[in-house]
Amino acid sequence: MTTTQLKQQFETLFDQEALETYFCPGRVNLIGEHIDYNGGLVMPCAINFGTWMLLSPNEDNVFRFRSVNFEETYDIGVQTAYEKTGREWFNYPLGVLHHFVADGKQVQGLDVLYYGNVPIGSGLSSSASIEIATAFAFNQYFKTDYTKLELVLMAKSVENNFIGLSSGIMDQFAVAFGEEHKALKLNCDTLDYEAVTANLQNNVLAIINTNKPRKLAESKYNERVEECHQALAALQQELDINNLCDIDGITFKQHQHLITDPTVLKRARHVIEENDRVKLAAVALAEDDLVRFGRLMYASHLSLQNDYEVSGAELDAVVEYSLTDSNVVGARMTGAGFGGCAIAIVNADAFEDYRKNVIEYYTQKIGYAPSVYATNISDGVHELV
């Protein structure tokens, strides 16, 4: 759907023109999975799929939330606090609104329309995209002077405290701070980051949606967070650390005897070794060595499959096929797992062949088809002129 079509739809819904239009991308994580809540390094990038948000003020002092993607609508007046109303999509912007009024910011009623082309529940951060789009747009429109980092922290709080999901900060950070043709090497503990040039050369970034939706809040995501807390507590018997990622793989091997639960041990091993892989991946990109980067992608997936156990037959099938295709530099699951998406770096000239072949392989193995897209690395949230 084009911006022009969205503006026409806005006018039809609200009987007025949209005053402002914003876009916030989704994201993929190139490497560094399940690290963000363990204080380590991740390497996400923004993509050219995302959320469009159109708004105009109304005279009724009411927030009217509408979406092209969902039938559910929500109207609510200006209040001093808001509460989650269930599981509908509009709880994400409602949570952002709650933070604005809880901070004492002056707001007024708005007519708001959203449209997203990020597959819902796919692991490409549709929720972070709508949160940051809303926070950025409200900040611009109400002239509330939050910094971009404050908006990121606000959106993370919405996810954790309003929605109730124990996620880290990577998703919101990536869609806010993303840069075209660059990956963000982000320290999730300090929030220091470096924009690393990600030269894909003659390749595209393929996104393979398994079409197995996974409801993150209902998955074993929170269970993995707890297992990491258990591993950290065990290591803290001898090590002065605040996060699992405060140590490297060598130090972990010297102290892994402290973790007596074999499952918890596997979880910790993935996290610590994955953190090391991100450091190696940044060096590979800096040296323009995509082949080495691709090997690290495959190693990451293997660890997520065997040690962290968050992939599953669907994601594994995508990577299994990719390993056989000489036009693929590297592939791995991305996001929290339990379904969702995989990514692959694929020769641009061979993308259509890759798309056809991976769909065929996956369908034979799983019983239904995935969706495969070519994307590029794009800028973070911004207003559309």
Automatic annotation (TrEMBL):
Enumerate the spans annotated as GHMP kinase N-terminal domain: 91-178
Q: What is its EC number?
A: 2.7.1.6
In this chain, substrate is annotated as bound at 33-36, 221
Catalytic positions are 171 (proton acceptor)
Q: Which domain of life is it from?
A: Bacteria
Q: Where does ATP bind?
A: 67, 121-127
Keywords on record: ATP-binding, Carbohydrate metabolism, Cytoplasm, Galactose metabolism, Kinase, Magnesium, Metal-binding, Nucleotide-binding, Transferase
**Main location as per UniProt:** cytoplasm
User: Which pathway does it serve?
Assistant: Carbohydrate metabolism; galactose metabolism
Any GO BP annotation? galactose metabolic process
Q: What is this protein called?
A: Galactokinase
Species the sequence originates in: Mucilaginibacter galii
Q: According to the entry, what is the taxonomic lineage of the organism?
A: Bacteria, Pseudomonadati, Bacteroidota, Sphingobacteriia, Sphingobacteriales
